[in-house]
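Sequence in, structure out.
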Amino acid sequence: MKKLEKYLPLLVLIAFLPILILRDFSISNELRYLSIADEALRNGNIFTFTNNGLPYADKPPLYLWIVMLGKLIFGTHYMWFIGLFSLVPALIIMRIMRNWIVADCTLPEKEWRLTSQLMLITCGMFLGLNIFVRMDTLMCLFILLALRTFYRMYQGRGNFNRQSLLFGLWVFLAVFTKGPVGILMPLLCPLVFLLFKREGRTFFHYWNLRVWAVLLILCGLWFLMVYIEGGTDYLNNLLFHQTRDRAINAFHHKKPFYYYLIQIWHCLAPYSLLLVGVWLAAMIKHRFTSDTEHFWSITVLTTFVMLSAVSGKLAVYLAPIIPFLVFLVVSLLRKFQRNPWIQASLALPAVFYVAALPALFYLANYTELSYAGQLFFYIAAAILSVGGIWALCVLYKKTNHKQQGVRKAVNVLGFSLLAAVFAGGWSIPAVNPYIGYRDVCQKAVEISILKDLDQYHSLYLRRAENMDTFLGEDIIQISTDDKTETPEIISERVQKLSGTVLIVLQKKFERRASNELKQYLQQKERYTVGPYTVVVL
């Protein structure tokens, strides 16, 4: 078990390798980041960004610099390179929390060192962040480093002055990666913890002049470069529109205050019931016995309330609390006797695992998701089904003592999930046309060269403006959102096009296009790529 724990990061890396190598960039965010990075490189911008000519101050520069670096090194964008900046921070988070719990908490068994890390890396949110590339995992790492540094200062470990400088640096890097939450968590969580300990007056002992000096100097240099490169309007957009306006009356992702009470369950799956149940039971029964447990619990609760109070909400914003909640519950489990409700909290997800293979068979054969019926997806589903049965067996084994069955069941569920990710990853190329635009763009470019066409147009495509990453030039979008754009007007515009490649999302086209346009395009040379049709006009 000790050797298995040692090599867990390598096993996780191997599990995600097929997806990192074979998956296309998703339409919603990843492709947009590539397009923004390409535009910045063309324009020579470093601190200010545009997306197809429009200012893009939504995100700080650090993550976009990573995307730009990959393009400069390799001449093109590779998923594996960008993906490593999500996966590697997740592995570092896993190890930091492992060392923290070993140093400050009592584990039910030494074997929980492996189980706690496995539970974190296979939690729904962390699993998703390792599959779909975002800057959130990198931000989580810097927030964790900031809070860990604060706690070391609180415990009196290490050189205080050096820790203060590091504290300020980690906070800045968190802000420089994702924005305001990077400073709010390291600011509010220590404050609430110190108030809980009745030591609130010492807050500025930790948030001291050195911390503020590092933050102000680094942020000042950043904002100065933004002003020099983008002017007052861009700086105002970055500092106020993307912070205050998102927090108070969000123009994007506006959700009700109870939004995270719903989202938390799939973010923590398949361990949702276990994690939330044990945490709430421990609070009700006053089972917290160490400062570390109190600090982790306060971090989770304070951040959850803070995020719920903000107007703009996305499930991924919960990511920073997950490491603290997972390792807190592992520390608390030793204080609970073996009982039916803890077993049931894992039995239910194990039953869902068992249903994976029949569920995939149904989806692939009786729904519109026929493309999911790939060989390696079936192998992945079979692994999950076998894993679910195995987990149920070890969970209810009569010879288990205390939480031994829980630990073994979590191990089975976690390793089954990693094995399924590895197996399913090999079938990713078959579903890439449904994930991103690379395949359809390659077909469009091939046709354009073969037919000597000079333009690209899109119809009923989402965020088609970012296809320039693969096409090598801008694509002209035929407007369909305006209510004045009737099917007849759209049909007339399309029929006037010539010498171009038209890319159509077939499902929307069938539902919304006029019969005249359908008949017109039926007569043209057409190619099908996943859900898209490429038409020669």
